[in-house]
Write a structure and sequence with these properties.
By secondary structure, this protein is α/β, with parallel strands linked by helices. It folds into two domains: about 210 residues, Rossmann fold; about 70 residues. The protein contains eleven helices and eight strands. InterPro entries: AB_hydrolase_fold.
Length: about 350
């Protein structure tokens, strides 16, 4: 019986061996083709899904800029209220910023400049039914004593004037504006706040027990700031404050990126700028910035290229912002807007 059984299994073993060989060969072929495909893509920058879907005109069909410009205490106050607003959002710019950076030029705001990240934050807010209020600081950066009193008064008067007093108020500040919002939150009631690329001014501040839930949106490449944010998150949690964070990472440039992000800058110029940056070595083979945009001599390179930018001053600050953002060290960002507004909405009571 043993011999008969052994003879009867030999064809089966042979068939299994053949199938195994065929399977191994197939896997080798598939692996080889995959490696060939990847090598053919080497050097081509890959764009983040978040970048590719957030174009400058993403909200064209759902919301339009229709801001109102006022003056208060010698500073610009620019705002817009959507139909049936659910909350009020106060936005605080960083150093060298202004309220006009958040809005496209329009009849209601002829001097607005609409920087790419600021304007997209506003459009996200309006699409989510947040009334948006932007105010310029008195100086290059925000101060943290008397200016807190002035801004609190401006916000409260604006809220009362527009009969929004029943709505919750949230705030987002970037860099100096983030420090300012962290301090302002000890003076007035916010449902929640977002501090962008800012650790906040918590040392020396008397943090009240009802300090608002705080979201830190930061760039880990700035290691020192990330450490300070970590310490402040722990300190706020010890006070019982709801705290969270979003980490923003670098991403590669692509030929169409600047056209996708900057209103009025077309694909032809975007591609030419990308090629210039690559030829000058400002970006690596995968499209990543080698240095922060502020430390890259791209403006000098553009000046030497005649007629590359029809109006060389029109988009300088817009391009600078996107190069800084791609390097992800210290820049305003709209890429995490969905998460930021989810945070705000989760704390609206």
């Amino acid at each position: 019986m043993f011999r008969r059984g052994s003879k009867s299994t030999r064809p089966l073993h042979g068939a299994l061996n053949c199938r195994l060989v065929v399977l191994i060969i197939s896997l080798v072929i598939a692996l080889t083709l995959s490696l060939l495909f990847l090598s053919s893509k080497e050097g081509q920058p890959k764009i983040s899904p978040n970048i590719s879907r957030q174009k400058w005109n993403s909200f064209r069909s759902s919301v339009q800029f229709q801001p109102t410009l006022d003056l208060s205490n010698g500073r610009d106050v620019i705002w817009q209220i959507p139909d049936s607003p659910k909350a009020v959002l106060f936005l605080a710019h960083g150093c060298n910023g202004r309220a006009v950076n958040f809005w496209d030029r329009s009849p209601g705001c002829p001097n607005c400049v609409g920087l790419p990240e600021e304007r997209l934050i506003v459009l996200h807010a309006l699409a989510r039914k947040f009334a948006v209020l932007t105010i310029s600081s008195a100086g290059r950066c925000w101060s943290f004593e008397e200016e807190r009193v002035i801004i609190k008064e401006i916000i409260q008067k604006w809220v009362d004037k527009n009969r929004l007093e029943k709505l919750p108020i949230v705030a987002l500040g970037a860099s100096s504006g983030g420090h300012f919002v962290s301090a302002l939150a000890t003076d007035m009631k916010f449902s929640s706040i977002t501090l962008m690329i800012a650790e906040g001014l918590f040392r020396g501040l008397d943090i009240p027990d009802d300090y608002p839930p705080t979201l830190f949106v930061h760039m880990p490449k700035d290691d020192e700031r990330m450490k300070l944010i970590g310490k402040n998150m722990k300190a706020l949690r010890r006070k019982g404050v709801d705290v969270s964070e979003i980490k923003c990472m670098e991403f590669p440039l692509a030929p169409s990126l600047l056209a996708d992000r900057i209103p009025g800058l077309d694909d032809t110029i975007s591609v030419k700028l990308f090629e210039l940056f690559r030829n000058k070595g400002f970006i690596d083979d995968n499209g990543y910035m080698r240095k922060d945009g502020r430390a890259t001599k791209w403006k000098e390179a553009v000046r030497k290229e005649q007629n590359l930018l029809p109006d060389k001053y029109e988009w300088i600050h817009h391009i600078q912002e996107e190069l800084n953002l791609a390097f992800a060290y210290h820049e305003m960002t709209s890429l995490q807007s969905e998460q930021i507004f989810d945070w705000f909405e989760s704390h609206i009571s």
